[in-house]
Specification:
It is a single chain. By secondary structure, this protein is of the alpha+beta class. The protein contains 14 helices and 25 strands. Strands 1-3-4-9-7-6-10-11-2 form a nine-stranded antiparallel sheet. A six-stranded mixed sheet has the order 20-23-22-21-24-25, sandwiched between helices. Strand 24 and strand 25 form a beta hairpin. Helix 7 packs parallel to helix 9.
Length: about 525
Amino acid sequence: MKNICGWICLLCLCFLSLQAQAGRKKVLEYPGFVWANTSEIEFKRMILTEEQTQVDAVMYGKPGTPLVISSQAMLKGANGAVARLREADKISIDGVTEPEVIGEDGRLEVTLSFAPLQSDVHEVDFVEPEMSWNIFGIQLSRKEPYIYVPNFLTSDTSMDSNELPEPGLSEGKAVVNGYILGYDSKMALLGELVYEDGFFPQPWTLPVKIRQDGSFHLETELYQPVLTSLKLGEATLSLFLVPDEELTVYIHLPRLSMSCSHLLGRHYEKKEKAWFDGAAETINRELSVGNKSALEAYQAVEKDLMERPEIAGKLKADSEKVKPVCERLLAASSLTSDDVKILRTLEFPEIRTYVETVAQALQLNAARVVSTKEAVVASLDTQVAGADILPRIIAPHKGRAILIDFWATWCGPCRKSMQVMLPLKKTLASKDIVYIYLTGPSSPESIWKAALSKMTGVHYRLTDAQWKYLCSSYGVTGIPAYLIISHDGKLQARYVGFPGVDVLQEDLLRAVEE
């Protein structure tokens, strides 16, 4: 009888143990995530137990591509917990075993086994250092990542009455102010705006700098409204931009990211992924949920306008003239005298102004690149005065951090500080920084030009009035003196006297990154 009771107790304990283990097992189908920098691997299922964290993943790529993963791959929790890769099925760890390959359909399902995660971990990042794969904010407790969305974005109904933009040619600068909701600086997200203008032989790709708070600002020259692609890693948001108009966009990063994934795209393609204020709100809002009706309505009106007899023939003739000019301009970064003559014969001044503006930007950028290797002498019109002086000097370098150095050829401390700065300029060579040197009439022109041979950067020799105005306005009571301008054009720091290499390095890095 005692033996029977013992067996019953043992069976009860086993049953309770199995129940407890079953209770700790958690299965997550198609887990949501915040952002990924790769489309080569996606998580289809996660099974969390006390023994392991199993990930059923799908690998994507060109058929026949061998599948290898680093043994350093891991899942990282926000609380610092790390679950390292233990085993893998159908994918070789470090290439030690012969790997399987991507199938003819461009995909292959694999299984990864990681160490178990603590029960209090609610989201993890997947990190594969060898391939630089990162999937941020994989959800373990909810379907969609929680992102704070300001109430004014979801409650504002005034945008519904926004009219379509006026079609036709209208040269000007399109401005975009963006806010990425859900962004974290650890993502090191790289953005770019891509579009075609129909004249230059290849698409334009403009880098978009994401600040640490997730905001960004970009400007681009256009000659008519255009559909563009804002690329944030593997995610893409269509933006319809209008010349001489400003657009503000608030992007729900997780929804945008998941709408572009292989596994979650269908579920999120119709969900609201961004909110807009400003130019072409209706078109942009509809595009963000996969609706093109407003865009198609605009394109129909535009087509009708451009096909009118009094416009179509002239536009075709202008296009045939300007395309070879644009091709040469892209290769040489400047217009030839013959190109200038051709532009003067165009029927539409908007096209001529657009090409000339692009030419000026390309020329300035080429000079900036040269300035990192040698001295570039720049000139400022003597008529530029007062509050216009500094904005005119820094305008060609918008979007870049700027160090402005006030100096003179006769100033010993100035020359000494420039020599001390040489190693710093090499250290920061990969950063988007422009070095601008300003001097006045007290530096004889011949001596000034001779001194530039070893001074990389952009150099201005100002008039007496320009020099005195800047010194008075910015408290330059002695030289050398320095202004640090951040990439968004704001004055970040000012020094009279050399503050030291470490101080300038810290300021310049902050000016580039914040």
